[in-house]
Amino acid sequence: MNQPEDFRQAVREWLEDNCPESMRSPLPSEAEACWGGRNFEFYSEDQRLWLERMAERGWTAPTWPTEYGGGGLNREEEKILKEELARIHARQPLISFGISMLGPALLKFGSEELKQQHLPPIVRGEIRWAQGYSEPNAGSDLASLQARCEDRGDHFILNGSKVWTSYGDLGDWMFCLVRTDIEAPKHKGISFVMFDMATPGVSTRPIRLISGKSPFTETIFDDVRVEKDQVIGTLNQGWTVAKYLLTHEREMIAGSGVSSAGTMSVSKTATKTIGTDNGVLRNTPLRADIARYEIDERCLELTIERARDEVKAGVSLGAAASMFKYYGTELNMRRQELLMAIGGNDALVWEGDASKDGDTPRQWLRSKGNSIEGGTSEIQLNIVAKHILGLPG
Ligand SMILES: Cc1cc2nc3c(=O)[nH]c(=O)nc-3n(C[C@H](O)[C@H](O)[C@H](O)COP(=O)(O)OP(=O)(O)OC[C@H]3O[C@@H](n4cnc5c(N)ncnc54)[C@H](O)[C@@H]3O)c2cc1C
Predict the structure, then answer these.
(1) How far is the centre of ligand 1, averaged over its atoms, from the C-alpha of 370 (Å)?
(2) If you measure from the C-alpha of residue 122 to the centroid of ligand 1, how many angstroms do you get, rounded to a whole number?
(3) How many CB atoms lie within 10 A of CB 12?
(4) Residue of the CA atom closest to atom 23 of ligand 1
(5) What SS3 class is residue 333?
(6) How many angstroms is it from 138 CA to the middle of ligand 1?
(7) How far away, in angstroms, is 165 Cα from ligand 1 center?
(8) Same CATH fold, 264-388 and 4-95?
(9) Residue 78 pLDDT greater than 70, yes or no
C-alpha cells in the first residue's frame, strides 16, 4: 500500500472494527488512564481489549520498527493514524514512560539484546517504567548525582536514593542514572542502568502533594544487585544517553499543553458546562480567553509537528525540546486555569462522584508541577538563551 489515502482508508476500517465503542469518548477522569504494567487493574474489559488490539498492530508505538513490536509507520502514516484516532475521539490506549522516554534511548543507544528484551513488552504495556534521575542534591544540577554502583565482578551493587520518582510505587522496572566512577569529573563517571524494582533492596516511600495525592516517591537502594548487561550505551558515558532521553521527556511534557485525542477540548467543555445562546458561548470574557488559548494551542501543535518532520529529515531536535517544554507547560497551566474558571464553584468540589473525586481542582494543582518536572522552566530558558539565541553564558 503506497498511497496515503489507501492507508487512511485501511486505518479507518480497522478502527471501525476494533476500537470498542466505550473507548471513543474522552476519559471521564485522568485517574482512568491506562498505564499498563504487571499490576495494572483495567477499568473495563474494553480498556483491556483496546490496549491489546492496538499493541498487536504495534500502534502503541507506531513508528518503532516492527522487529521490536512497533508499527513500523513512517511520519506521514503516523500523522494519519493520529488524525483517524482523533476523528473518532479514541482514548490513548497506553500512557507509558517506556514509550515516551526509555524507548527512544534504547533504540538509539541500546544493544540488540537489550532492544529485544525490553522494547516488545513496552509496546504491549506489560512493564511499567519509573525514572530514577533526581536526587535530593541533584535536580537542576543532575550530574551531581551520588547513587553509586560498585563493580562486583559479574554485577554491580547499587546504594543511594532517588527522589520525586513519578509512580515509583507502581513501577515494575526503573531506568536510572548512577555513578560508576567516583574519580572521574562529574559528567564523566555516570552510567545509565536498568533493573527490576522487585529486586531485593529497592524500596519506596510516598511523597504526598498539595493535590492530596501521592503520585511520586522517594526510592531507596540498599545493596541492590544490578546486572552488567543492563547498561545502555558505554559504561561511564551515561550522560549522553541521559541528555538524549531528556529531550524526549521534554517533548512529551510539552504535549501536555495540547489537548490530545481522548480529552475534551476547552471550548467543548465550556459549551457543555456553561451553555450557549444561539450556538455562541454565554460568558463573553471567558470566550476571548478560550479562543486565545485554542489558537496558541494549535500553533504549538503545528510547530511541534514541523519539528518532528525536521527530526525525521535528520535535523536534531536538541535545544528546541526546551522551547517546547517551556511553552507547552505554560499552556497547560493556562488550560487548567480556564477549566477551573469554566467550572466555577463546582470546580472547587474535592470529593464525591459528581466531581469525579475533584478531578478538575486536582489537575489544576498538578499542573503547577509542570514548570518543575523534566527540568525547571528557568533551566529551559537558560538552554534556549544559550543554544538557540546564542546569548553569552
Ligand atoms: C510532577 C513532577 C514529577 C517528577 N518526576 C520525576 C521522575 O519521575 N523522576 C525523576 O528523577 N525526577 C522527577 N521529578 C524531579 C524533577 O526533575 C526535579 O524536581 C527538577 O529537575 C528540579 O530539581 P529540584 O527539585 O532539585 O530543584 P532545584 O534544582 O533545587 O531548583 C530550585 C530552584 O532553583 C532554580 N535553579 C536551579 N538551578 C538554576 C540555574 N542554573 N539557573 C536558574 N535557576 C536555577 C530552579 O529553576 C528552581 O526554581 C519530578 C518533578 C515533578 C514536579
Answers:
(1) 10
(2) 27
(3) 15
(4) 139
(5) helix
(6) 8
(7) 12
(8) no
(9) yes
Atom of ligand 1 nearest to the CA of 209: 1
Task: Output b/e per residue, 73-92; b: 16+ Cβ within 10 A.
Answer: beeebbbbbbebbeeeebbb
CATH topology of domain 264-388: Butyryl-CoA Dehydrogenase, subunit A; domain 3 (1.20.140)
Q: Is 262 left (phi over 0), alpha (psi -120 to 50) or beta?
A: left
pLDDT of residue 330: 94
- DSSP one-letter code for 172: S
Determine the Cα–Cα distance for residues 19 and 244; give it in Å rounded to an integer.
34
Residue pointed to by grid coordinates 495494572: 40
From 373, 382, 384, the mutation candidate for ligand 1 (largest count of ligand atoms within 8 A of CB) is 373
pTM value? 0.92
Give the DSSP letter of residue 280: E
When mean pLDDT is compared over 43-52, 280-289, 308-317, the highest value belongs to: 43-52
Q: Which residue's CA is minimally distant from atom 27 of ligand 1?
A: 139
What is the second-level CATH architecture of the domain 4-95? Answer: Orthogonal Bundle (1.10)
What letters, b where the CB count within 10 A reaches 16 and e where it falls short, cover 264-285? Answer: eebbebbbeebeeeeeebebee
On the question of pLDDT at 20 being above 90, the answer is yes
| Short-list 364, 366, 375, CA closest to 325 | 375
Q: Under CATH, what is the fold of the domain 129-236?
A: Butyryl-CoA Dehydrogenase, subunit A; domain 2 (2.40.110)
Nearest in space to 181 (alpha carbons), one of 236, 142, 221: 236
Average pLDDT of span 12-21: 98
| pLDDT-based confidence at residue 260 (cuts at 50, 70, 90) | low
231, 114 Cβ separation under 8 angstroms: no
CB neighbourhood size of 31 (10 A): 12
Domain ranges of the chain: 4-95, 129-236, 264-388
Greatest CA separation for the chain? 75
For ligand 1, whether the C-beta of 203 sits within 6 Å is: no
Among the atoms of ligand 1, which is closest to the Cα of residue 168? Answer: 8
Atom of ligand 1 nearest to the CA of 372: 53
Distance 322 CA to ligand 1 centre (A): 14
Ligand 1 pocket residue status of 373, Cβ below 6 Å:
yes
Is the shortest distance between the CB of 319 and ligand 1 below 6 Å?
Answer: no
